[in-house]
Gfo/Idh/MocA family oxidoreductase
Amino acid sequence: MGTGTIATEHMVAAIRSVGHQPLWVVSRNRQYATHFSQDMQIAGIAVDARPTLRDPRVQYAYVSAARDRRKHYILAAAAARKHVLCDGPIAGNSRIAANLAEECRKAGILLALNQPFRTLSPHQTMRRLLQDGEIGTLQSLLIARGAPFQLPPNRHIDEAVDRGGALLEMSVDSIDLARFLTGQEPAAVTALSSVPASPDGDQISYAIRLSSGALFQSYESFTTAEFESIVMLAGDRGTLTAHGTLSGRGSGALVRRLNGRNELIPVRERDQHMTTIEAFLALPQSSGTWMSLAEDNVIALRTAEAVQAAARRRHISVSSP
């Protein structure tokens, strides 16, 4: 449902790679749906999701529509009792996201998110090594990434891009990754934006105290030249650092530092889209998952909104001597 991103094209291939067949392309623009169905060789075309979801062959829906259209498709799938895999975030704010999560819960369906950062092998390895005590007790987590703002991949050049929400979505992804890596919950936040009293600029830095007392610090910017992203878990015995994993151009590298020495940790390359589809299909039979579910997205959105609120508050200026 939705035809706007190159990620959709990757997911079509991933769905086929696990032995499933995409049956329908749904878009409110019939021309877009027609072109996409021809490109991806999908037979069914529709502008209304409801008839497609009544098709007895349909087992689940993948939603890759624009953010403000995701609610419509998720509710249609809930009404039809069909599980949903959706690009994140599922809504523009935590209130709507919480309502969607509740509707899906009442309908008895799963609402899972396509969160590429959770899927990457270096991040999954970091999580496992932290759980195994490889770096001792976690003390802090650092995420830093920056690059000039770029339009997301889009098949349709006439579609508007919501730049205003881009920094919020970046924070949502970072917060979700922090929860995934650490298994801890946000407890308190503080933040600074590049524009005083405004979180709506292109640069923000924030700190979050996690439920165990560890500190999570993040720097996110659209104003810098592109630099290699960093995701660092620092424990009382050592550190794990993932380099270049947040650029969307490969899985990056993972380094462990113990006793003053760096060691490159080998990680298994795998297709992140196929991994996501396989994990999603296993959800109905699995009691636990590493995937981001609707409730996880609600928490990430609420925390990102708290970060924005913290950035709006009055700050104490430092006087010159």
The chain has two domains: 6-114, 117-270+291-312. The longest strand covers residues 138-146. The mean pLDDT is 89. Residues 294-312 form the longest helix (19 residues).
